[in-house]
Amino acid sequence: MVKGRVYLVGAGPGDARLITLKGLDCLAKGDVIVYDRLANPSLLKKAKPGAEKIYVGKRTDRHTMKQEDINQLLVDLALSGKTVVRLKGGDPTIFGRVGEEAGLLRQHGIPYEIIPGITAAISVPAYAGIPVTHRDMASSVSIITGHESPDKLDEAIDWERVTNATGTLVFMMGVAKIGYISGQLMTHGKSPETPVALIRWGTRAEQETLVGTLSDIEQKVLEADFKPPAVIVVGEVVQQRELLKWAETMPLFGSRILVTRSRSQASGLVHQIEELGGEAYEYPVIDFAWPQGEALQHTQEALGQLGTFDWTIFTSVNGVEFFFRHLLETGRDIRSMHKARIIAVGPATKEALRQHGLTSEELPGTFQAEGLLETFGPVLQPGQKVLLPRGDLARSWLPGELKKLGLEVVEAVMYETVPAGEDDDELLRLLGKCAIHAVTFTSSSTVTYFMKALRNMGVENPVQALDKVTVACIGPVTAETAKAAGLHVDLMAEEATINSLVQKLVEWKALQGSQQ
């Protein structure tokens, strides 16, 4: 059998966006992903469909698998012909045991590549506003392991040389040994007033920073119950934090927000959350599929009448996109609907139409079906013919009201909404730890399918699972669906737009900050 290839990939410090492009390419082609505790689990969503995922994480007090066994696992997987991605937090060459893993692979003649990652030693302090070098304070930086027992630390570290180094000292994985480390540095000549910072879970929503001096940092760690994993920075550059800290000043810093939108629609919401300093956790619960059977036949018949409609009303971006896909599939010409006036329910739908070269009427006062009818009801005439390109789960309210006004309504199902939620152990873990701070619902179907997905993953009481999560809905219709499902609705966008929903999240976070 042909030997597989192993990619030893640095996942970066925690924020999933800080992995390299080549690292993502490797994830997309791996048959097996062997990952550790410090690699952001959301990166596993970038793996190709069907890829096997093996957790080999290690903690100070518990190892899922010994390093020797991990080394052998990589060999065995590669010898079976599989492409293997070994996903490691930070950079694999900095205390990542990559030398041992690559060494055994070479002994067995297995091809491998080392894909560097952004090391936590530099990036985590940067996210806390601490540059590890500074022209006036430090022209060098030393990266030191703090993970070993005191006896091994003494063997591994020349404390005299480290203490007398003129630059910044960065200790990795040393929270449990902070008292010993600070004591050794003072014993060998460092001033007790030397600034120290510990940054926990840097670049992620849980990021915390604790600042002190060599003389008091151990006591501060005990009082704050400051837990690993954390990076320890020792040196004058720590003083730059108050001047340069930036992550904590962002409106959504410290918030992990669950996005349930379909993956094809989620990018706008995810981007805004991340731009404002939040961490977006994507769990798309719906997807959109081509209609089948009678629904498709009826849609094709409706498109055959394009030239007969007086009005065409689009109530979603999906409706627009699938409408044009249907035109392309059936070879129809958009010019055949020149007679129809076009209405869009909101700005995103209007923009989608503009991208296809169509101009719609003025926007309704409120961006939902009720507002649409309130704005255009007076100009709709009995006997006029209306086309509604929609999804299969669209509300029946609008066509019903149009018929009451005496209009001939033709509903055309452009797409079907289908479940997309898969089992996600990381999501369940985060919910169990109250580490999901808010969940966003952008349609009634996202509510329905999210609750169903939780039940399918074995959550007996989904409502209780979300009891401590802030629930944010894009509008009143979605909010009513959430309430009907038993959820408490904490935030509702003033307008049914992503921008308005994000603004509500910002206001919520600001209120939290003012109450602390």
UniProtKB/TrEMBL annotation:
GO biological process: methylation; siroheme biosynthetic process
PROSITE patterns linked to this entry: SUMT_1, SUMT_2
Residue intervals of the Tetrapyrrole biosynthesis uroporphyrinogen III synthase domain: 269-503
Any matching Pfam family: TP_methylase
Keyword Methyltransferase: yes
Key words of the record: Methyltransferase, Porphyrin biosynthesis, S-adenosyl-L-methionine, Transferase
Keyword S-adenosyl-L-methionine: yes
An annotated Gene Ontology molecular function: uroporphyrinogen-III synthase activity
Enzyme Commission identifier(s): 2.1.1.107
Domain Tetrapyrrole methylase span(s) in chain numbering: 5-217
Top-level taxon: Bacteria
Annotated family: Belongs to the precorrin methyltransferase family.
Record protein name field: Uroporphyrinogen-III C-methyltransferase
High-level lineage: Bacteria, Bacillati, Bacillota, Bacilli, Bacillales
